[in-house]
Amino acid sequence: MGMREGTGVLVIGGGPAGLAAAIAARMKGFDVTVADGGKPPIDKACGEGLMPSTVAALRALGVAICPGDGQVFRGIRFLDDRTSVEASFSGASAFGVRRTVLHQKMVERAQECGITLEWNTPVAGLCRDGAILGATVVKARWIIGADGIHSRVRRWTGLDAKMRQEMRFAQRRHYRVKAWTNCMEIHWGQKAQAYVTPLRDNETCVALISRDPRMRLENAWRELPKLTGYLCHAEPCSAERGAVTVTRRLRQVYRGNIALTGDASGSVDAITGEGLCLSFHQAMALADSLEKGELESYQRAHRKLRRWPNIVGRLLLLLDQYPPLRKRALRGLSEDPELFAQLLAAHLGEASPRFLASASLRLGWQFLTA
Ligand SMILES: Cc1cc2nc3c(=O)[nH]c(=O)nc-3n(C[C@H](O)[C@H](O)[C@H](O)COP(=O)(O)OP(=O)(O)OC[C@H]3O[C@@H](n4cnc5c(N)ncnc54)[C@H](O)[C@@H]3O)c2cc1C
After folding, report:
1. Does one domain contain both 181 and 281?
2. pLDDT value at position 367?
């Protein structure tokens, strides 16, 4: 097996988390190589909603999302067969952006920073001082595993030994239809939710997520009458693409000189809309730790970063699991839309703990009286 000149940081996986980690490390002056088995722009089933906090994190990495990249949306709307409740973001805008557009923008930023990008290059394993890329060993001072939800780096390093997880199944498709909404909509059915994101050029992204692995978009329409009304004459303009979304927490996200990031390092359910934002913040925390020359501070930052998205994810999954609870919660929120706006602000990190405590008390009251 051949041996190649080493690199400061080798990132395994060039999806959004890997590119973010590479850009953040490069911004600290490291020499960085990214290896990915695919070729850009890499697509993936995703809700394609970039929350204001996600757009801000991208900006900090030097990736500016502009109106031409996607469709601005102003808030979140929850709907079921009877109730509709919505809240606007308090500050900056959110964007619906095709996954391939986001990937391409991140690739361009990585190129501009001087990162070495190796596409069509699956990593086959780790070895003493580096990793095996095809038939070559590449030495690296630091290795970052950003190889997604089914991470092999996680397995190779034994970091998945003590993990807890809960899995749901997703299907995503695009429809050619003029946006009927300026919000990201979450349509709640008995056994599934559909996440609807307006994109540019009269395109709409629909991602259906269910605990049932057999659930497909065509058999979900019965459950989601309002959405069916909007989409019944719309022409699909992409093939259906499947994925899983997993709530997974790892005890440890690094071993020796190898750190995990993004979905490889544990994930929150897609229902939070926070997966990308979380991985961009992890990237920045990881680069800070690399600069210090240790990974324990990354472990601490990682734990802190995922605490709140994890709580929100768990609460929303309870609404998915228990329909009577969901009906009560939606009814309560529809009677107090201001409360929904406060909860959304707290979720996006725009609210203080005091503000959050008062919103929680109001939520409890609404819940009891709805
Ligand atoms: C249905 C659904 C909807 C979602 N909606 C949203 C949303 O609206 N907003 C949001 O913020 N988040 C959303 N998420 C979450 C978000 O998509 C993920 O958090 C994000 O994709 C994580 O990125 P990643 O780079 O960690 O993983 P990935 O995007 O999976 O990238 C991993 C990369 O690693 C590469 N790779 C794997 N193995 C190897 C190997 N051995 N060698 C080299 N390369 C390898 C792959 O080719 C891939 O490019 C959603 C997720 C799902 C499933």
Report:
1. no
2. 56
